[in-house]
Amino acid sequence: MAHILQTSFLxxxxxxxxxxxxxxKAKSRSLQVKAKIREIFMPALSSTMTEGxxxxxxxSEGDKLSKGESVVVVESDxxxxxxxxxxxxxxxxxxxEEGGVAPVGSAIALLAETEDEIAEAKAKSQSSxxxxxxxxxxxxxxxxxxxxxxxxxVAPTVSSTKTVVVGSAVHPASEGGKxxxxxxxxxxxxxxxxxxxxxxxxxxxxGRIVAKDVEAAAAAAAGVVAAASxxxxxxxxxxASGIELGTVVPFTTMQGAVSKNMVESLSVPTFRxxxxxxxxxxxxxxxxxxxxxVTMTALLAKATALALALHPVINTCCRDGNSFTYNSxxxxxxxxxxxxxxxxxxxxxxxxxxxxxxxxxxxxxxDKARAKQLQPHxxxxxxxxxxxxxxxxxxxxxxxxxxxxxxxxxxxxSQPAVVxxxxxxxxxxxxxxxxxxxxxxxxxxxxxxxFLQTLxxxxxxxxxxxx
Amino acid sequence: xxxxxxxATTVPISNxxxxxxxxxxxxxxxxxxxxxxxxxxxxxxxxxTHSCSSRVPFxxxxxSKKISASAExxxxxxxxxxxxxxxxxxxxxxxxxxxxxxxxxxxTAIIEGDVVGGTCVNRGCVPSKALLAVSxxxxxxxxxxxxxxxxxxxxxAGYDRQGVADHANNLASKIRNNxxxxxxxxxxxxxxxxxxxxxxxxxKFGKVxxxxxxxxxxxxxxxxxSVPFVPKGIEVDGKTVITSDHALKLESVPxxxxxxxxxxxxxxxxxxxxxxxxxxxxxxxxxxLMPGFDPEIGKLAQRVLINPRxxxxxxxxxxxxxxxxxxxxxxxxxxxxxxxxEPKDTLEVDAALIATxxxxxxxxxxxxxxxxxxxxxxxxxxxxxRVIDAxxxxxxxxxxxxxxxxxxxxxxxxxxxxxxxxxxxxxxxHVLNHLSIPAACFTHPEISMVGLTEPQAREKAEKExxxxxxxxxxxxxxxKALAENEGEGLAKLIYRPDNGExxxxxxxxxxAADLIHEASNAIALGTRIQDIKFAVHAHPTxxxxxxxxxxxxxxxxxxxxxxxxxxxxxx
Lengths: 467, 571
What we know:
heterodimer, A: CATH 2.40.50.100, Chloramphenicol Acetyltransferase, 5-stranded antiparallel beta sheet, B: 19 helices, 23 strands, dihydrolipoyllysine-residue acetyltransferase activity (chain A), lipoyl (chain A), Biotin_lipoyl (chain A)
């Protein structure tokens, strides 16, 4: 096979040159006059080979080639082979891209003798590309999309332009954004998905860019592209004054993301379990420490986190339909309505952080959310979601499970109710109803029931919340 | 995985990163070490042929007399001996020698200062194979595409780190027990303690704090092996900056690990770590990855083992400084351009594995007592493993095998050298043909090789004026490989078309490590292509890859008329 290979990689004088390639007659004549721009042909790597697929180009356009250097990897019916250059020069133009198939003997690239001729060769390749019989087989991108995980919980992007924050990675080695620290796989993905790492915010250890950051950035970018043209007039339209009746207004990027996630949630088998919790003690506690800046949201998040710590299965998610993913930290996402959409700022490690810090953190997140300045890791790392409509007087409702998490809890208003106690007395107590929606692939009814029991205990005796 | 199996007593590793060495020197050494396993002996080929052609059959007793005069000054050797043969170091090399010595009727003792089994069994080939077995299975189970193609459905594969680590550890202790028992049952005395040579045919051994004992033997074999080599500037803490010794315990699976050195130790660990979910960055001082392999095999291996995996790499750079993770800071690695010596980059990773080769373990052997000066730590020997002293004279009755002599840092090479020495001391001259010793890298798929690489063969051919041809076959055309859905792979034969001599065989593909032996045996026995091509292979088996390889070689008609099988050649 080796010697066939050597002769088939054609210099301008070889036999295959003379066999006319359909549609490229004129071009080859002009080449003979100049003889300085050579064509690289699809070699015959075996006697039975009629066409070859370009596995990869080992050189890029403009690269210098020395004699004997490998230029391209070609897959034949038998093996993948390196094809070497038999001339020195510059790889001027690649005519068949990676993944493309070309018949044996057809030109797959042009080789210029000097750097000056690269442009000329490029022009030539363009004029001839129409007649080239190469066809590109598209198979890579499809696979990519399948493997792309659900990007974030409820709202992955704040706004198309803001998600991409240049140089805001906090990695100590990044030298203020000058250096990009990305894991090997993140780099590889960025190249494949054509994501500029400089615009990706890292959420890995020490702010390192990891694979999921790149995927998120790619998904966001895709959203931008999809929304771009139709969305622009809509944004220009006077939305603030109200809604113009009789019009169709395309989703903003955020709304698009919400829509996508909501539809995706239909593929998850969910079920619901409700519970009524007495909040007198919690209300009393809240009154006591309100002056220290503690919010009800923080208290609820803290209580939930403490209950989750005792029931790790409620903090799992099911990524692939085959396994439990036990999250290492308890990150409580809390849904917040912002104009035209909603977002879920995340209180990270809510079980470990004390209530005062948690309250301060919450305030900071809400401010950021209003200013649309949340970083991806501040809204897409939730492992359990809280949604509270109590402030509107809603006494009970039902939430949709955000993809990528195991459970969401809908919290209703705490209201005075006439309650019969076990010792046969009637009294008035403040009660709220909570309703948890969970993924039944990983979380079962009994799990949820005992979690809610623990949560009720914590809320009804909230001394642990301030520890 | 680790080239050699021998004793390595507990000596701080820093001893071997000799402080005075410049980084450049340290790395040139690294390169050398990597080549030791695969190449060094190949380059020394011409020297060996020379010694072979002038081979004079004389007994060990004969030549010992000839040179005893020079040894006289070191004291008179004892008249009667405790043992016929003492081996210092109970690694695979020492073990192989001891077993053969008993077979030859020698009264044998083996001295071990650490644990029986040496590097190979305890910190090398054996536990690494356990990890690689796990990584191979994980790879299969995780490859949804591959499984689907076979019609299999497997739910998410996961692993328990401690379980994997235990498997490696259990395997090592099992093999260690087997080794110990095999020696005990044959009546080999296992003497515990650090062995030191005190004079001709005299060895002292003992544990720290206990009185030393002195034993005498007619012949002594040094088989003390090697330890991981750590270049200057690299601080090993055993947790985040580690050597293969630590990595094999699998105490953690970091998210991102940098592997310094892309030889086969580094390559095998990259296979393990990526299968277990880590991302890997290779740091290689030479311009291309896997510098020890045949270039074509290396290129293909890179396409299969590196590019599609979660691995990136920096080539042509030295890691001049590596600081372990501390106080919430990650491991930092400073990279310097290998040519310009300019700082190039700083990496921050979760862990770093130093796989820059291995250093001979020869400290404390008492070499000064017998006037032997090591060369970069290695004990100088001739082609019969006889130790050479500072004046260039052979020391009678003293041999050195395995990593400690640096000829070919592979466990089975050490064992073969040991057997060769025993043959000599029992009256049959024997010279080992290192070019017939195969080497393997147990990645998925595996890489294996024997003899010369194509560039080496061409260089030799130019010097000696013969022609070289290359034949190749692909696993894609093999039924068994396709049945397994593992068609990725290449076998390459480098040969002389004028006489059909096999110069080298390189295989990359499914079970390559097991397939190489047909070629290495052919080289060892001097079988020519025109003869071996008529040997029959069962169908359908992977061995047909080699069958096809031999059949596709074009040996000139003139050679075919010669006598069918040439005499076995010892080179």
